[in-house]
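Title: Comparing notes on inverse folding

I've been comparing how different people in this forum approach sequence design from structure. To keep things fair, I'm posting one structure and asking everyone to reply with a full sequence. Here's the target:
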């Protein structure tokens, strides 16, 4: 009996040591989370360039799903074979978006396989640094394999359900017809009940009660309305009329009590079927920005360059590396430098006005700006556009991790 008791105590001590080792490994990998996520995103792009899908919503979701997959892998470090983590919703949503965007399941699976292999390299690297023994490492890798199998099964099931044949509702049929028209197909669109030869403004909106808001807007502006529900949480709308409508006028007629979680983006006026497609593409390109600025309508013309930047991973990564990372080497992580730059740029590069906004004297602002130029190794006047873009992207939370 005493021997058995000592054995149980030994097992308990071994479990405690195992749990501590895994917790330390998890902490080490968590410190490298952004590095892992960026490497995984690079691997995803290398397997198949997602920008060819031409859908900003899909690209945005791909970034979120990659980050969620890294978090899923990290959570499995602390799991057991009997208590595997739940597959994150962002991954399942992206599987449905892939099916709708006609991204093949083979590409989707190859991306996850590539990410799994990459994550495994990080795990082995840190496990070696942590000094995990062979038995514990084998146990950990079994859990990782089980978690990955669960993820692949969930993605495959979700993709299959979305791409399977289901009886079409009238709403789904209208959405499919609109999607085919947007893709450039020539077909009879009389079922949509909309005149495509007039002047249009495209709108994309999300949030509760948005269909009612858009219908009331079309009545107030006396415009023909085409409202489509594509089934992804957004609503597509076109407001059409014989005369061109100023987007600013549309913004003035929006209710002031938009739902708190609502996001709305407005394309530019354009005529005919080609214009109907163009104004929608503009709204779709600016949607990621609108999603980060709820309750405030976003007009494409105001964010056109920024919207294009969001789809260029090379550009956003380079802007961070060239203009933000050097500032991060300051003692406060670059907070003072960023705050000074924002005030300086908001004041149209007037140092006195920037000083007043910051509550410091003009000489302090001048000293800070010279220090920033030294960090960047270039004069500010030569890179104002790039710095402004980098700060705007950072404000949106869209710059990739360093």
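Reply #1:
Here's my take.
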């Amino acid at each position: 009996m005493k021997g058995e008791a000592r054995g149980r105590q030994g097992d308990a001590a071994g479990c405690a040591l195992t749990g501590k080792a895994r917790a330390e490994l998890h902490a080490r990998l968590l410190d490298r989370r952004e590095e892992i996520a960026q490497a995984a995103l690079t691997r995803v792009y290398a397997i198949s360039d997602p920008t060819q899908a031409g859908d900003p919503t899909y690209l945005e979701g791909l970034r979120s799903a990659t980050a969620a997959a890294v978090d899923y892998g990290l959570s499995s470090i602390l799991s057991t074979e009997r208590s595997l983590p739940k597959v994150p919703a962002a991954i399942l949503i992206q599987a449905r978006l892939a099916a709708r965007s006609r991204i093949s399941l083979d590409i989707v699976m190859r991306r996850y396989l590539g990410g799994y292999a990459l994550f495994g390299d990080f795990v082995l690297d840190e496990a070696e640094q942590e000094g995990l023994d062979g038995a514990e490492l084998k146990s950990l890798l079994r859990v990782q394999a089980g978690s990955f199998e669960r993820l692949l099964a969930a993605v495959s099931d979700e993709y299959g359900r979305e791409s399977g044949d289901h009886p079409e509702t009238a709403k789904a049929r209208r959405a499919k017809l609109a999607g085919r028209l947007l893709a450039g197909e020539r077909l009879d669109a009389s079922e949509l009940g909309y005149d495509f030869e007039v002047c249009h403004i495209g709108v994309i909106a999300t949030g509760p009660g948005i269909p009612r808001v858009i219908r009331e807007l079309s009545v107030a502006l006396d415009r023909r309305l085409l409202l489509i529900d594509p089934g992804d949480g957004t609503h597509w709308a076109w407001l059409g009329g014989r005369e061109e409508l100023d987007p600013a006028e549309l913004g003035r007629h929006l209710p002031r009590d938009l739902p708190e979680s609502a996001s709305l983006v407005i394309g530019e006026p354009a005529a005919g079927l080609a214009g109907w497609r163009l104004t929608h593409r503009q709204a779709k390109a600016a949607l990621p920005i609108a999603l980060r600025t709820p309750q405030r309508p976003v007009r494409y013309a105001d964010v056109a360059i920024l919207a294009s930047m969001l789809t260029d991973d090379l550009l956003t990564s380079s802007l961070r590396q060239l203009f933000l990372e050097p500032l991060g080497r300051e003692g406060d992580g670059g907070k003072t430098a960023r705050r000074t730059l924002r005030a300086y740029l908001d004041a149209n590069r007037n140092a006195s006005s920037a000083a007043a906004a910051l509550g410091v004297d003009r000489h302090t602002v001048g000293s800070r700006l010279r220090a920033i130029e030294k960090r960047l190794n270039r004069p500010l006047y030569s890179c104002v556009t790039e710095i402004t873009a980098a700060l705007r992207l950072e404000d949106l939370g869209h710059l990739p991790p360093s």
